[in-house]
Amino acid sequence: MSAGTPTGSTASTSAIWRTRGLIVAGFTALSSLFSLLHYTPLQFVSVNLVQALVLVMLGALAALGCALRMPALLLAAGTILIVVGLVRLVTYAATIGIISGSVNAAALMTGLGTALTAIWITSRPMPKRS
After folding, report:
1. What's the Rg (C-alpha) of the chain?
2. How many angstroms separate the CA atoms of 84 and 42, rounded?
3. Considering only CA atoms, which of 56, 58, 74 is closest in space to residue 19?
4. What is the sign, positive or negative, of the torsion defined by CA atoms of 38, 39, 40, 41?
């Protein structure tokens, strides 16, 4: 009985992290649509073109990681989102090239990156207790 449990548990865990990863990857890519909105009540986040491209590319990378069952791609996408978001938040007073833009977009990137990283952490199998 215990011999069949880890296999089913592993398969179930794999499906769960992939589903969650695809959902967050989809939200990451779809959040770039804020760059197309010019109607103030609906524009919750001001995203410039470069930030929108970063969100689409990293969302696609995370989705690819889920499709190929490679959680390391989730970690890569999440880490890059966190770094870009934090660099923008730290350099708020300056307008430095591609990281200039809305602080709200930086907070969105940091939050989505944290979610992808959390999914990567939970996708790893837990050690067995003796």
Report:
1. 17
2. 24
3. 74
4. negative
Half-sphere exposure of 13 (CA within 13 A, CB side): 15
CA dist., res. 62 & res. 49, Å (int): 20
Quick one: which of 78, 71, 68, 80 has its CA closest to 117?
78
Based on DSSP, count helices (H) and strands (E) in the chain, helices before strands.
Answer: 4, 0
Measured in degrees and rounded to the nearest 5, phi and psi for residue 12 equal -65, -45
Helix (H, G, I), strand (E, B) or coil at 3: coil
Q: How far is CA 76 from CA 11, 21, 31, 61, 82, in A?
A: 23, 13, 19, 8, 10
pLDDT in 10s for each residue of the chain, 130 residues: 444 444 455 567 778 888 888 899 988 888 888 777 766 666 677 788 888 888 899 999 999 998 888 889 999 999 999 999 888 888 877 766 556 667 888 888 999 999 999 988 887 765 667 6
